[in-house]
Amino acid sequence: MNECALPAGITALACAIAQQFEDDYELALFAAALLQLSDTLSTIVSQRALASKK
Q1: CA distances to 3, 13, 28, 38, 49 from 16, in Å
Q2: CA of 38: how far to CAs of 1, 2, 28, 31, 53, in Å?
Protein backbone atom coordinates (compact mmCIF):
# COMPACT_ATOMS: atom_id res chain seq x y z
CA MET A 1 0.00 0.00 0.00
CA ASN A 2 1.21 3.47 -0.84
CA GLU A 3 2.24 5.32 2.34
CA CYS A 4 -0.05 8.22 1.40
CA ALA A 5 -3.11 6.12 0.57
CA LEU A 6 -4.41 5.79 4.13
CA PRO A 7 -3.95 9.47 5.11
CA ALA A 8 -5.46 10.57 1.79
CA GLY A 9 -8.41 8.25 2.26
CA ILE A 10 -9.00 9.51 5.79
CA THR A 11 -8.85 13.10 4.56
CA ALA A 12 -11.38 12.36 1.82
CA LEU A 13 -13.66 10.65 4.32
CA ALA A 14 -13.41 13.62 6.71
CA CYS A 15 -14.35 16.01 3.92
CA ALA A 16 -17.29 13.84 2.88
CA ILE A 17 -18.54 13.61 6.46
CA ALA A 18 -18.11 17.36 7.06
CA GLN A 19 -20.23 18.13 4.01
CA GLN A 20 -23.14 16.27 5.64
CA PHE A 21 -23.26 18.79 8.52
CA GLU A 22 -24.57 22.30 8.00
CA ASP A 23 -24.25 23.15 11.70
CA ASP A 24 -20.66 23.52 12.92
CA TYR A 25 -21.69 22.71 16.50
CA GLU A 26 -23.14 19.37 15.40
CA LEU A 27 -19.98 18.63 13.42
CA ALA A 28 -17.87 19.51 16.47
CA LEU A 29 -19.95 17.14 18.62
CA PHE A 30 -19.59 14.38 16.04
CA ALA A 31 -15.82 14.95 15.91
CA ALA A 32 -15.62 14.83 19.71
CA ALA A 33 -17.54 11.54 19.73
CA LEU A 34 -15.13 10.07 17.17
CA LEU A 35 -12.19 11.27 19.25
CA GLN A 36 -13.65 9.55 22.30
CA LEU A 37 -14.11 6.37 20.25
CA SER A 38 -10.48 6.56 19.14
CA ASP A 39 -9.24 7.09 22.70
CA THR A 40 -11.34 4.20 23.99
CA LEU A 41 -10.05 1.87 21.28
CA SER A 42 -6.48 2.90 22.16
CA THR A 43 -7.18 2.10 25.82
CA ILE A 44 -8.58 -1.31 24.89
CA VAL A 45 -5.62 -2.23 22.70
CA SER A 46 -3.20 -1.07 25.42
CA GLN A 47 -4.96 -3.23 27.98
CA ARG A 48 -4.83 -6.22 25.63
CA ALA A 49 -1.12 -5.69 25.02
CA LEU A 50 -0.45 -5.49 28.73
CA ALA A 51 -2.54 -8.59 29.43
CA SER A 52 -0.71 -10.58 26.76
CA LYS A 53 2.63 -9.85 28.43
CA LYS A 54 1.49 -11.50 31.68
Answers
A1: 21, 5, 15, 19, 34
A2: 23, 23, 15, 10, 23
Residue 6 CA from chain centroid, whole number: 12
Cα distances (angstroms) measured from residue 45 to each of 15, 42, 50: 28, 5, 9
Q: Tell me, what's the pLDDT at 54? A: 79
What single-letter amino acid sits at 2? N
pLDDT of amino acid 12: 98
Which regions of the chain are under pLDDT 70?
1
